[in-house]
Design brief:
five-stranded parallel β-sheet; 2 domains; alpha/beta; Rossmann fold; 12% strand; homodimer; 304 residues
Amino acid sequence: MKCSKCGSKAIYHQKYSGLYLCKECFIKDVERKVRKSLGKKIIKNNMKIGVGLSGGKDSVVMTYILNKFFETIPNSEIVVFFVDEGIKGFREVARKFVIEFCERYDIKYKIIPLKEELGITLDDIVKIAREKNITLNPCSFCGVMRRKLLNKYALKEGCNYLAIGHNLDDISQAIMMNYIDGSIEKLVRLGKDAEHPLLVKRIRPLKYIPEEEVQLYADLVGLKYQKEPCPYSSISYRAEISEIIDKLEDSHPGTRHSIVSGFEKLIKHLDIKMEVKTCKICGEPSSGDICKVCLWMEKLGLRV
Amino acid sequence: MKCSKCGSKAIYHQKYSGLYLCKECFIKDVERKVRKSLGKKIIKNNMKIGVGLSGGKDSVVMTYILNKFFETIPNSEIVVFFVDEGIKGFREVARKFVIEFCERYDIKYKIIPLKEELGITLDDIVKIAREKNITLNPCSFCGVMRRKLLNKYALKEGCNYLAIGHNLDDISQAIMMNYIDGSIEKLVRLGKDAEHPLLVKRIRPLKYIPEEEVQLYADLVGLKYQKEPCPYSSISYRAEISEIIDKLEDSHPGTRHSIVSGFEKLIKHLDIKMEVKTCKICGEPSSGDICKVCLWMEKLGLRV
Protein backbone atom coordinates (compact mmCIF):
# COMPACT_ATOMS: atom_id res chain seq x y z
CA MET A 1 0.00 0.00 0.00
CA LYS A 2 1.02 3.60 -0.59
CA CYS A 3 1.17 6.34 2.03
CA SER A 4 -2.16 8.21 2.04
CA LYS A 5 -0.28 11.47 2.56
CA CYS A 6 2.74 11.40 0.23
CA GLY A 7 2.43 8.29 -1.94
CA SER A 8 5.64 6.62 -0.68
CA LYS A 9 5.62 3.03 0.49
CA ALA A 10 3.35 2.69 3.54
CA ILE A 11 4.63 0.88 6.60
CA TYR A 12 1.62 1.34 8.89
CA HIS A 13 -2.14 1.13 8.63
CA GLN A 14 -3.82 3.45 11.10
CA LYS A 15 -7.17 1.70 11.31
CA TYR A 16 -8.98 4.36 13.35
CA SER A 17 -8.26 7.06 10.75
CA GLY A 18 -8.23 4.81 7.69
CA LEU A 19 -4.80 6.17 6.71
CA TYR A 20 -1.79 4.27 5.41
CA LEU A 21 1.45 5.97 6.43
CA CYS A 22 5.09 5.80 5.34
CA LYS A 23 7.87 6.04 7.92
CA GLU A 24 8.29 9.82 7.64
CA CYS A 25 4.58 10.59 7.62
CA PHE A 26 4.00 8.25 10.56
CA ILE A 27 6.67 10.00 12.63
CA LYS A 28 5.26 13.41 11.69
CA ASP A 29 1.74 12.23 12.57
CA VAL A 30 2.77 11.15 16.07
CA GLU A 31 4.70 14.37 16.69
CA ARG A 32 1.88 16.54 15.35
CA LYS A 33 -0.61 14.88 17.71
CA VAL A 34 1.70 15.29 20.69
CA ARG A 35 2.20 18.96 19.79
CA LYS A 36 -1.54 19.47 19.40
CA SER A 37 -2.35 17.80 22.72
CA LEU A 38 0.11 20.14 24.47
CA GLY A 39 -0.94 23.29 22.64
CA LYS A 40 0.57 26.77 22.56
CA LYS A 41 -0.04 27.31 26.25
CA ILE A 42 2.70 24.78 26.96
CA ILE A 43 5.07 24.86 24.00
CA LYS A 44 6.34 28.42 24.44
CA ASN A 45 9.14 30.55 25.90
CA ASN A 46 10.08 30.49 29.55
CA MET A 47 8.75 27.03 30.22
CA LYS A 48 10.31 24.40 32.42
CA ILE A 49 8.81 20.96 31.99
CA GLY A 50 9.57 18.22 34.49
CA VAL A 51 9.52 14.79 32.85
CA GLY A 52 9.01 11.50 34.65
CA LEU A 53 11.32 9.10 32.83
CA SER A 54 11.18 5.45 33.87
CA GLY A 55 13.27 4.06 31.03
CA GLY A 56 10.37 2.19 29.42
CA LYS A 57 9.25 2.88 25.85
CA ASP A 58 6.48 5.33 26.70
CA SER A 59 8.47 7.75 28.80
CA VAL A 60 11.50 7.46 26.48
CA VAL A 61 9.39 8.38 23.43
CA MET A 62 7.69 11.20 25.36
CA THR A 63 11.00 12.64 26.56
CA TYR A 64 12.54 12.38 23.09
CA ILE A 65 9.62 14.26 21.48
CA LEU A 66 9.42 16.89 24.24
CA ASN A 67 13.16 17.48 23.92
CA LYS A 68 12.79 17.88 20.16
CA PHE A 69 10.07 20.50 20.71
CA PHE A 70 11.76 22.43 23.48
CA GLU A 71 15.41 22.42 22.41
CA THR A 72 14.73 25.16 19.87
CA ILE A 73 12.55 27.31 22.13
CA PRO A 74 14.42 30.13 23.90
CA ASN A 75 14.55 30.06 27.70
CA SER A 76 12.61 26.81 27.87
CA GLU A 77 13.91 23.45 28.98
CA ILE A 78 12.93 20.01 30.09
CA VAL A 79 14.35 18.29 33.15
CA VAL A 80 14.14 14.55 33.66
CA PHE A 81 13.31 12.88 36.97
CA PHE A 82 14.09 9.21 37.42
CA VAL A 83 12.82 7.57 40.59
CA ASP A 84 15.03 4.65 41.54
CA GLU A 85 12.71 2.57 43.72
CA GLY A 86 15.38 0.02 44.49
CA ILE A 87 14.24 -3.05 42.62
CA LYS A 88 17.25 -5.32 42.31
CA GLY A 89 18.19 -6.50 38.84
CA PHE A 90 15.61 -4.20 37.25
CA ARG A 91 16.10 -0.57 38.16
CA GLU A 92 19.88 -0.58 37.64
CA VAL A 93 19.21 -1.45 33.99
CA ALA A 94 16.59 1.31 33.69
CA ARG A 95 18.95 3.77 35.37
CA LYS A 96 21.64 3.00 32.80
CA PHE A 97 19.17 3.56 29.90
CA VAL A 98 18.00 6.85 31.42
CA ILE A 99 21.51 8.23 32.04
CA GLU A 100 22.73 7.23 28.57
CA PHE A 101 19.61 8.72 26.97
CA CYS A 102 19.85 12.02 28.84
CA GLU A 103 23.58 12.36 28.19
CA ARG A 104 23.16 11.54 24.52
CA TYR A 105 20.49 14.21 24.05
CA ASP A 106 22.04 16.61 26.54
CA ILE A 107 19.02 16.67 28.85
CA LYS A 108 19.35 17.74 32.48
CA TYR A 109 18.41 14.87 34.78
CA LYS A 110 17.96 14.08 38.44
CA ILE A 111 18.08 10.59 39.93
CA ILE A 112 15.82 10.21 42.97
CA PRO A 113 16.73 7.08 44.96
CA LEU A 114 13.92 5.91 47.21
CA LYS A 115 16.58 4.79 49.70
CA GLU A 116 17.53 8.46 50.21
CA GLU A 117 13.92 9.62 50.40
CA LEU A 118 12.39 7.03 52.71
CA GLY A 119 15.55 5.40 54.04
CA ILE A 120 14.54 2.08 52.49
CA THR A 121 14.20 0.42 49.05
CA LEU A 122 10.98 -0.94 47.55
CA ASP A 123 12.49 -4.45 47.73
CA ASP A 124 12.91 -4.07 51.50
CA ILE A 125 9.43 -2.58 51.92
CA VAL A 126 7.91 -5.57 50.11
CA LYS A 127 10.04 -7.94 52.21
CA ILE A 128 8.97 -6.34 55.49
CA ALA A 129 5.29 -6.40 54.45
CA ARG A 130 5.62 -10.12 53.74
CA GLU A 131 7.40 -10.81 57.01
CA LYS A 132 4.76 -8.90 58.94
CA ASN A 133 1.98 -10.54 56.93
CA ILE A 134 0.64 -7.16 55.79
CA THR A 135 -1.11 -7.13 52.38
CA LEU A 136 0.70 -4.62 50.20
CA ASN A 137 0.33 -4.34 46.43
CA PRO A 138 3.81 -3.16 45.35
CA CYS A 139 2.33 -1.46 42.26
CA SER A 140 -0.18 0.60 44.25
CA PHE A 141 2.46 1.64 46.77
CA CYS A 142 4.98 2.42 44.04
CA GLY A 143 2.38 4.44 42.13
CA VAL A 144 1.50 6.83 44.96
CA MET A 145 5.12 7.05 46.06
CA ARG A 146 6.41 7.94 42.57
CA ARG A 147 3.61 10.46 42.12
CA LYS A 148 4.60 12.11 45.38
CA LEU A 149 8.32 12.22 44.62
CA LEU A 150 7.93 13.44 41.03
CA ASN A 151 5.72 16.26 42.26
CA LYS A 152 8.13 17.12 45.07
CA TYR A 153 11.11 17.44 42.74
CA ALA A 154 9.22 19.15 39.91
CA LEU A 155 8.15 21.77 42.47
CA LYS A 156 11.68 22.08 43.87
CA GLU A 157 13.07 22.62 40.39
CA GLY A 158 10.42 25.26 39.62
CA CYS A 159 8.75 23.29 36.82
CA ASN A 160 5.60 24.74 35.27
CA TYR A 161 4.32 21.28 34.34
CA LEU A 162 5.11 17.65 35.02
CA ALA A 163 4.89 15.34 32.00
CA ILE A 164 3.81 11.72 32.51
CA GLY A 165 4.22 9.08 29.80
CA HIS A 166 0.75 7.50 29.81
CA ASN A 167 -0.33 6.46 26.33
CA LEU A 168 -3.85 6.16 24.91
CA ASP A 169 -4.15 2.50 25.96
CA ASP A 170 -3.14 3.26 29.57
CA ILE A 171 -5.57 6.13 29.86
CA SER A 172 -8.53 4.43 28.23
CA GLN A 173 -7.95 1.41 30.52
CA ALA A 174 -7.83 3.60 33.63
CA ILE A 175 -11.01 5.44 32.62
CA MET A 176 -12.84 2.19 31.89
CA MET A 177 -11.71 0.59 35.17
CA ASN A 178 -13.06 3.55 37.10
CA TYR A 179 -16.30 3.63 35.10
CA ILE A 180 -16.80 -0.04 35.93
CA ASP A 181 -15.83 0.36 39.59
CA GLY A 182 -18.04 3.43 39.82
CA SER A 183 -15.22 5.35 41.51
CA ILE A 184 -16.19 8.99 41.02
CA GLU A 185 -13.28 10.28 43.10
CA LYS A 186 -10.74 8.34 41.06
CA LEU A 187 -12.36 9.51 37.83
CA VAL A 188 -12.08 13.11 38.96
CA ARG A 189 -8.49 12.64 40.06
CA LEU A 190 -7.71 11.06 36.69
CA GLY A 191 -9.27 13.86 34.70
CA LYS A 192 -8.78 17.02 36.71
CA ASP A 193 -5.69 18.26 38.48
CA ALA A 194 -6.50 19.65 41.88
CA GLU A 195 -5.40 23.27 42.11
CA HIS A 196 -2.86 23.83 44.88
CA PRO A 197 0.38 25.81 45.20
CA LEU A 198 2.20 22.60 46.21
CA LEU A 199 0.94 20.62 43.18
CA VAL A 200 2.64 20.86 39.79
CA LYS A 201 0.10 20.58 36.98
CA ARG A 202 0.46 17.25 35.18
CA ILE A 203 0.33 16.77 31.42
CA ARG A 204 0.10 13.58 29.39
CA PRO A 205 1.65 14.28 25.99
CA LEU A 206 1.02 10.72 24.69
CA LYS A 207 -2.63 10.59 25.73
CA TYR A 208 -3.82 10.33 22.11
CA ILE A 209 -1.08 7.97 20.90
CA PRO A 210 -1.95 4.23 20.98
CA GLU A 211 0.64 1.99 22.63
CA GLU A 212 1.25 0.25 19.30
CA GLU A 213 2.26 3.57 17.74
CA VAL A 214 4.50 4.55 20.66
CA GLN A 215 6.30 1.25 20.18
CA LEU A 216 6.59 1.71 16.41
CA TYR A 217 7.81 5.30 16.83
CA ALA A 218 10.53 4.15 19.24
CA ASP A 219 11.64 1.44 16.82
CA LEU A 220 11.58 3.68 13.73
CA VAL A 221 13.53 6.46 15.43
CA GLY A 222 15.89 3.88 16.95
CA LEU A 223 15.36 4.77 20.58
CA LYS A 224 16.74 2.43 23.21
CA TYR A 225 14.57 1.59 26.19
CA GLN A 226 14.10 -1.05 28.87
CA LYS A 227 12.00 -3.89 27.48
CA GLU A 228 11.61 -6.27 30.41
CA PRO A 229 8.63 -5.61 32.69
CA CYS A 230 8.98 -4.80 36.38
CA PRO A 231 9.28 -8.02 38.43
CA TYR A 232 6.48 -6.78 40.72
CA SER A 233 4.05 -6.06 37.91
CA SER A 234 0.85 -7.98 38.49
CA ILE A 235 -1.92 -6.29 36.64
CA SER A 236 -4.57 -8.96 36.33
CA TYR A 237 -7.65 -6.72 36.44
CA ARG A 238 -6.05 -4.14 34.18
CA ALA A 239 -5.06 -6.93 31.78
CA GLU A 240 -8.69 -8.06 31.65
CA ILE A 241 -9.88 -4.53 30.83
CA SER A 242 -7.06 -4.10 28.34
CA GLU A 243 -8.14 -7.26 26.53
CA ILE A 244 -11.74 -6.02 26.35
CA ILE A 245 -10.72 -2.64 24.93
CA ASP A 246 -8.31 -4.24 22.45
CA LYS A 247 -11.13 -6.41 21.16
CA LEU A 248 -13.53 -3.48 20.87
CA GLU A 249 -10.87 -1.37 19.14
CA ASP A 250 -10.39 -4.20 16.69
CA SER A 251 -14.08 -4.47 15.78
CA HIS A 252 -14.73 -0.71 16.14
CA PRO A 253 -11.53 1.21 15.36
CA GLY A 254 -11.48 4.49 17.26
CA THR A 255 -12.94 3.03 20.48
CA ARG A 256 -9.96 4.12 22.59
CA HIS A 257 -10.11 7.66 21.24
CA SER A 258 -13.84 7.93 21.89
CA ILE A 259 -13.45 6.61 25.45
CA VAL A 260 -10.81 9.25 26.21
CA SER A 261 -12.40 12.18 24.39
CA GLY A 262 -15.83 11.36 25.85
CA PHE A 263 -14.29 11.23 29.32
CA GLU A 264 -12.59 14.59 28.78
CA LYS A 265 -15.92 16.15 27.80
CA LEU A 266 -17.63 14.53 30.77
CA ILE A 267 -15.06 15.66 33.31
CA LYS A 268 -15.41 19.30 32.23
CA HIS A 269 -19.04 19.17 33.30
CA LEU A 270 -18.43 17.57 36.68
CA ASP A 271 -18.93 19.99 39.55
CA ILE A 272 -16.62 18.07 41.92
CA LYS A 273 -13.40 19.61 43.15
CA MET A 274 -10.82 17.55 44.97
CA GLU A 275 -9.78 18.90 48.33
CA VAL A 276 -6.03 19.14 48.82
CA LYS A 277 -4.58 19.01 52.33
CA THR A 278 -0.95 18.80 53.42
CA CYS A 279 0.24 15.58 55.04
CA LYS A 280 0.71 16.03 58.79
CA ILE A 281 3.81 13.84 58.69
CA CYS A 282 5.76 14.83 55.56
CA GLY A 283 4.12 18.14 54.62
CA GLU A 284 3.52 17.06 51.02
CA PRO A 285 0.12 17.58 49.36
CA SER A 286 -2.37 14.83 50.17
CA SER A 287 -6.06 14.06 49.83
CA GLY A 288 -6.25 13.03 53.49
CA ASP A 289 -4.68 14.29 56.72
CA ILE A 290 -1.82 11.86 56.25
CA CYS A 291 -0.61 10.98 52.72
CA LYS A 292 -0.84 7.40 51.49
CA VAL A 293 2.94 6.86 51.56
CA CYS A 294 3.21 7.95 55.20
CA LEU A 295 0.14 5.84 56.07
CA TRP A 296 1.87 2.80 54.59
CA MET A 297 5.14 3.57 56.30
CA GLU A 298 3.32 3.80 59.63
CA LYS A 299 1.45 0.57 58.99
CA LEU A 300 4.72 -1.21 58.24
CA GLY A 301 6.35 0.24 61.39
CA LEU A 302 8.74 2.26 59.22
CA ARG A 303 7.61 5.74 60.14
CA VAL A 304 10.27 8.18 58.93
CA MET B 1 -27.35 -25.39 49.90
CA LYS B 2 -29.64 -23.79 52.46
CA CYS B 3 -31.26 -20.37 52.16
CA SER B 4 -28.98 -17.80 53.86
CA LYS B 5 -32.05 -16.04 55.22
CA CYS B 6 -34.42 -18.74 56.47
CA GLY B 7 -32.59 -22.07 56.21
CA SER B 8 -35.00 -23.65 53.71
CA LYS B 9 -33.73 -25.28 50.54
CA ALA B 10 -31.99 -22.67 48.39
CA ILE B 11 -32.89 -22.47 44.71
CA TYR B 12 -30.69 -19.53 43.72
CA HIS B 13 -27.15 -18.35 44.38
CA GLN B 14 -26.90 -14.58 44.21
CA LYS B 15 -23.20 -14.30 43.48
CA TYR B 16 -22.90 -10.52 43.88
CA SER B 17 -24.27 -10.65 47.44
CA GLY B 18 -22.95 -14.09 48.36
CA LEU B 19 -26.45 -15.16 49.43
CA TYR B 20 -28.25 -18.44 48.76
CA LEU B 21 -32.01 -17.92 48.56
CA CYS B 22 -35.08 -20.16 48.73
CA LYS B 23 -38.07 -19.48 46.47
CA GLU B 24 -39.91 -17.29 49.02
CA CYS B 25 -36.84 -15.31 50.09
CA PHE B 26 -35.82 -14.78 46.45
CA ILE B 27 -39.24 -13.35 45.58
CA LYS B 28 -39.15 -11.13 48.68
CA ASP B 29 -35.64 -9.98 47.79
CA VAL B 30 -36.66 -8.87 44.30
CA GLU B 31 -39.78 -7.10 45.56
CA ARG B 32 -37.88 -5.41 48.40
CA LYS B 33 -35.33 -4.02 45.93
CA VAL B 34 -38.00 -2.76 43.56
CA ARG B 35 -39.78 -1.09 46.49
CA LYS B 36 -36.53 0.47 47.68
CA SER B 37 -35.62 1.78 44.24
CA LEU B 38 -39.02 3.48 44.01
CA GLY B 39 -39.06 4.85 47.53
CA LYS B 40 -41.78 6.52 49.55
CA LYS B 41 -41.99 9.47 47.18
CA ILE B 42 -43.56 7.15 44.61
CA ILE B 43 -45.32 4.40 46.56
CA LYS B 44 -47.94 6.54 48.26
CA ASN B 45 -51.52 7.81 48.07
CA ASN B 46 -52.89 9.73 45.11
CA MET B 47 -50.42 8.34 42.62
CA LYS B 48 -51.12 7.38 39.06
CA ILE B 49 -48.33 5.40 37.44
CA GLY B 50 -48.28 4.86 33.69
CA VAL B 51 -46.66 1.54 32.79
CA GLY B 52 -45.11 0.70 29.42
CA LEU B 53 -46.03 -2.96 28.92
CA SER B 54 -44.60 -4.69 25.84
CA GLY B 55 -45.53 -8.24 26.81
CA GLY B 56 -41.93 -9.35 27.32
CA LYS B 57 -40.67 -10.75 30.64
CA ASP B 58 -39.24 -7.46 31.96
CA SER B 59 -42.32 -5.29 31.58
CA VAL B 60 -44.61 -8.16 32.68
CA VAL B 61 -42.63 -8.63 35.91
CA MET B 62 -42.50 -4.88 36.48
CA THR B 63 -46.24 -4.45 35.98
CA TYR B 64 -47.03 -7.43 38.22
CA ILE B 65 -44.89 -6.05 41.07
CA LEU B 66 -46.15 -2.47 40.67
CA ASN B 67 -49.73 -3.75 40.71
CA LYS B 68 -48.98 -5.72 43.88
CA PHE B 69 -47.65 -2.54 45.54
CA PHE B 70 -50.35 -0.17 44.37
CA GLU B 71 -53.49 -2.29 44.62
CA THR B 72 -53.59 -1.78 48.38
CA ILE B 73 -52.81 1.93 48.36
CA PRO B 74 -55.87 4.20 48.49
CA ASN B 75 -56.51 6.51 45.55
CA SER B 76 -53.48 5.20 43.68
CA GLU B 77 -53.48 3.14 40.52
CA ILE B 78 -51.40 1.94 37.63
CA VAL B 79 -52.45 2.19 34.01
CA VAL B 80 -50.85 0.09 31.31
CA PHE B 81 -49.91 1.40 27.86
CA PHE B 82 -49.25 -1.07 25.08
CA VAL B 83 -47.89 0.35 21.83
CA ASP B 84 -48.89 -1.87 18.91
CA GLU B 85 -46.28 -0.96 16.32
CA GLY B 86 -47.80 -3.24 13.71
CA ILE B 87 -45.27 -6.02 13.36
CA LYS B 88 -47.05 -8.89 11.69
CA GLY B 89 -46.93 -12.26 13.43
CA PHE B 90 -45.27 -10.71 16.50
CA ARG B 91 -47.30 -7.91 18.02
CA GLU B 92 -50.65 -9.74 17.82
CA VAL B 93 -49.15 -12.35 20.15
CA ALA B 94 -47.83 -9.67 22.53
CA ARG B 95 -51.19 -7.89 22.46
CA LYS B 96 -52.93 -11.10 23.50
CA PHE B 97 -50.52 -11.59 26.43
CA VAL B 98 -50.98 -7.98 27.53
CA ILE B 99 -54.79 -8.03 27.39
CA GLU B 100 -55.01 -11.38 29.22
CA PHE B 101 -52.55 -10.17 31.85
CA CYS B 102 -54.35 -6.88 32.47
CA GLU B 103 -57.76 -8.55 32.62
CA ARG B 104 -56.54 -11.26 34.95
CA TYR B 105 -55.09 -8.71 37.40
CA ASP B 106 -57.81 -6.12 36.79
CA ILE B 107 -55.42 -3.46 35.54
CA LYS B 108 -56.66 -0.57 33.39
CA TYR B 109 -54.99 -0.64 29.98
CA LYS B 110 -54.80 1.33 26.77
CA ILE B 111 -53.77 -0.12 23.41
CA ILE B 112 -51.98 2.44 21.22
CA PRO B 113 -51.88 1.26 17.59
CA LEU B 114 -49.17 3.01 15.57
CA LYS B 115 -51.51 2.80 12.57
CA GLU B 116 -53.88 5.19 14.35
CA GLU B 117 -51.12 7.50 15.49
CA LEU B 118 -49.03 7.84 12.35
CA GLY B 119 -51.45 6.35 9.80
CA ILE B 120 -48.98 3.56 9.05
CA THR B 121 -47.55 0.41 10.66
CA LEU B 122 -43.86 -0.20 11.43
CA ASP B 123 -43.87 -3.02 8.88
CA ASP B 124 -44.95 -0.54 6.17
CA ILE B 125 -42.43 2.08 7.33
CA VAL B 126 -39.62 -0.48 7.05
CA LYS B 127 -40.93 -1.55 3.64
CA ILE B 128 -41.04 2.01 2.32
CA ALA B 129 -37.54 2.76 3.63
CA ARG B 130 -36.26 -0.33 1.79
CA GLU B 131 -38.08 0.59 -1.43
CA LYS B 132 -36.71 4.14 -1.28
CA ASN B 133 -33.25 2.85 -0.36
CA ILE B 134 -33.21 4.90 2.85
CA THR B 135 -31.16 3.45 5.71
CA LEU B 136 -33.47 3.04 8.70
CA ASN B 137 -32.70 1.00 11.79
CA PRO B 138 -36.16 -0.26 12.83
CA CYS B 139 -35.05 -0.51 16.49
CA SER B 140 -33.89 3.11 16.65
CA PHE B 141 -37.03 4.39 15.00
CA CYS B 142 -39.25 2.18 17.18
CA GLY B 143 -37.39 3.34 20.31
CA VAL B 144 -37.97 7.06 19.80
CA MET B 145 -41.49 6.48 18.54
CA ARG B 146 -42.51 4.37 21.55
CA ARG B 147 -40.90 6.85 23.93
CA LYS B 148 -42.91 9.65 22.33
CA LEU B 149 -46.22 7.77 22.40
CA LEU B 150 -45.84 6.47 25.94
CA ASN B 151 -45.13 9.99 27.14
CA LYS B 152 -48.06 11.41 25.19
CA TYR B 153 -50.55 8.96 26.69
CA ALA B 154 -49.10 9.06 30.20
CA LEU B 155 -49.54 12.84 30.08
CA LYS B 156 -53.04 12.56 28.65
CA GLU B 157 -54.02 10.16 31.43
CA GLY B 158 -52.57 12.48 34.09
CA CYS B 159 -49.88 10.04 35.24
CA ASN B 160 -47.39 11.25 37.82
CA TYR B 161 -44.74 8.86 36.56
CA LEU B 162 -44.11 6.56 33.63
CA ALA B 163 -42.54 3.19 34.48
CA ILE B 164 -40.20 1.52 31.98
CA GLY B 165 -39.15 -2.12 32.32
CA HIS B 166 -35.38 -1.81 31.87
CA ASN B 167 -33.48 -4.29 34.01
CA LEU B 168 -29.96 -4.02 35.46
CA ASP B 169 -28.41 -5.67 32.40
CA ASP B 170 -30.14 -3.28 29.97
CA ILE B 171 -29.13 -0.22 31.93
CA SER B 172 -25.52 -1.23 32.54
CA GLN B 173 -25.20 -2.01 28.81
CA ALA B 174 -26.63 1.35 27.81
CA ILE B 175 -24.32 3.19 30.22
CA MET B 176 -21.29 1.29 29.01
CA MET B 177 -22.17 1.84 25.34
CA ASN B 178 -22.39 5.57 25.94
CA TYR B 179 -19.19 5.64 28.00
CA ILE B 180 -17.41 3.91 25.12
CA ASP B 181 -18.98 6.11 22.45
CA GLY B 182 -18.24 9.17 24.55
CA SER B 183 -21.81 10.42 24.05
CA ILE B 184 -22.28 12.90 26.88
CA GLU B 185 -25.72 13.95 25.67
CA LYS B 186 -26.97 10.37 25.61
CA LEU B 187 -25.49 9.73 29.06
CA VAL B 188 -27.33 12.74 30.42
CA ARG B 189 -30.56 11.71 28.73
CA LEU B 190 -30.13 8.22 30.19
CA GLY B 191 -29.52 9.45 33.71
CA LYS B 192 -31.50 12.64 34.09
CA ASP B 193 -35.06 13.38 33.07
CA ALA B 194 -35.37 16.78 31.48
CA GLU B 195 -37.84 18.90 33.43
CA HIS B 196 -40.74 20.05 31.27
CA PRO B 197 -44.50 20.31 31.78
CA LEU B 198 -45.03 18.09 28.71
CA LEU B 199 -42.66 15.35 29.95
CA VAL B 200 -43.82 12.69 32.41
CA LYS B 201 -40.99 11.69 34.76
CA ARG B 202 -39.74 8.20 33.97
CA ILE B 203 -38.91 5.56 36.55
CA ARG B 204 -37.13 2.23 36.10
CA PRO B 205 -38.34 -0.06 38.90
CA LEU B 206 -36.16 -3.00 37.74
CA LYS B 207 -32.94 -1.02 37.44
CA TYR B 208 -31.24 -3.01 40.21
CA ILE B 209 -32.62 -6.43 39.22
CA PRO B 210 -30.37 -8.52 36.93
CA GLU B 211 -32.07 -9.98 33.86
CA GLU B 212 -31.43 -13.49 35.20
CA GLU B 213 -33.45 -12.65 38.32
CA VAL B 214 -36.29 -11.04 36.37
CA GLN B 215 -36.53 -14.26 34.37
CA LEU B 216 -36.44 -16.44 37.49
CA TYR B 217 -39.03 -14.26 39.23
CA ALA B 218 -41.39 -14.57 36.25
CA ASP B 219 -40.97 -18.35 36.21
CA LEU B 220 -41.35 -18.79 39.98
CA VAL B 221 -44.47 -16.62 40.14
CA GLY B 222 -45.81 -18.32 37.02
CA LEU B 223 -46.20 -15.19 34.88
CA LYS B 224 -46.90 -15.64 31.19
CA TYR B 225 -45.03 -13.46 28.73
CA GLN B 226 -43.94 -13.35 25.10
CA LYS B 227 -40.73 -15.29 24.67
CA GLU B 228 -39.85 -14.87 20.99
CA PRO B 229 -37.74 -11.80 20.16
CA CYS B 230 -38.90 -9.07 17.81
CA PRO B 231 -38.21 -10.04 14.16
CA TYR B 232 -36.48 -6.68 13.63
CA SER B 233 -34.15 -7.03 16.61
CA SER B 234 -30.58 -6.68 15.44
CA ILE B 235 -28.49 -5.68 18.36
CA SER B 236 -24.99 -6.63 17.33
CA TYR B 237 -23.12 -3.83 19.13
CA ARG B 238 -25.26 -4.20 22.23
CA ALA B 239 -24.70 -7.96 22.15
CA GLU B 240 -20.94 -7.35 22.09
CA ILE B 241 -21.16 -5.04 25.11
CA SER B 242 -23.51 -7.44 26.84
CA GLU B 243 -21.00 -10.27 26.41
CA ILE B 244 -18.22 -8.12 27.87
CA ILE B 245 -20.26 -7.15 30.93
CA ASP B 246 -21.45 -10.75 31.44
CA LYS B 247 -17.82 -11.90 31.48
CA LEU B 248 -16.77 -9.18 33.92
CA GLU B 249 -19.78 -9.93 36.14
CA ASP B 250 -18.71 -13.55 36.16
CA SER B 251 -15.13 -12.84 37.24
CA HIS B 252 -16.07 -9.85 39.44
CA PRO B 253 -19.63 -10.34 40.76
CA GLY B 254 -21.24 -6.96 41.37
CA THR B 255 -19.83 -5.32 38.23
CA ARG B 256 -23.26 -4.43 36.85
CA HIS B 257 -24.33 -2.88 40.14
CA SER B 258 -21.16 -0.81 40.38
CA ILE B 259 -21.52 0.41 36.78
CA VAL B 260 -25.06 1.59 37.47
CA SER B 261 -24.51 3.02 40.96
CA GLY B 262 -21.30 4.76 39.84
CA PHE B 263 -23.16 6.26 36.91
CA GLU B 264 -25.93 7.49 39.18
CA LYS B 265 -23.38 9.21 41.41
CA LEU B 266 -21.64 10.69 38.38
CA ILE B 267 -24.78 12.03 36.79
CA LYS B 268 -25.73 13.91 39.96
CA HIS B 269 -22.56 15.94 39.63
CA LEU B 270 -22.98 16.79 35.94
CA ASP B 271 -23.92 20.40 35.36
CA ILE B 272 -25.59 19.71 32.01
CA LYS B 273 -29.30 20.25 31.55
CA MET B 274 -31.06 19.01 28.46
CA GLU B 275 -33.00 21.64 26.62
CA VAL B 276 -36.58 20.67 25.81
CA LYS B 277 -38.34 22.21 22.84
CA THR B 278 -41.70 21.35 21.30
CA CYS B 279 -41.73 19.77 17.87
CA LYS B 280 -42.88 22.26 15.21
CA ILE B 281 -44.79 19.52 13.43
CA CYS B 282 -46.51 17.44 16.12
CA GLY B 283 -46.18 19.69 19.19
CA GLU B 284 -44.72 16.92 21.34
CA PRO B 285 -41.59 17.55 23.47
CA SER B 286 -38.37 17.20 21.51
CA SER B 287 -34.66 17.91 21.84
CA GLY B 288 -34.61 19.62 18.43
CA ASP B 289 -36.98 21.90 16.52
CA ILE B 290 -38.55 18.85 14.91
CA CYS B 291 -38.80 15.57 16.84
CA LYS B 292 -37.01 12.49 15.57
CA VAL B 293 -40.20 10.69 14.59
CA CYS B 294 -41.41 13.63 12.45
CA LEU B 295 -37.91 13.96 10.95
CA TRP B 296 -38.07 10.32 9.90
CA MET B 297 -41.60 10.64 8.57
CA GLU B 298 -40.50 13.61 6.44
CA LYS B 299 -37.44 11.78 5.18
CA LEU B 300 -39.61 8.85 4.13
CA GLY B 301 -42.07 11.17 2.41
CA LEU B 302 -44.74 10.19 4.95
CA ARG B 303 -45.24 13.55 6.59
CA VAL B 304 -48.44 13.39 8.60
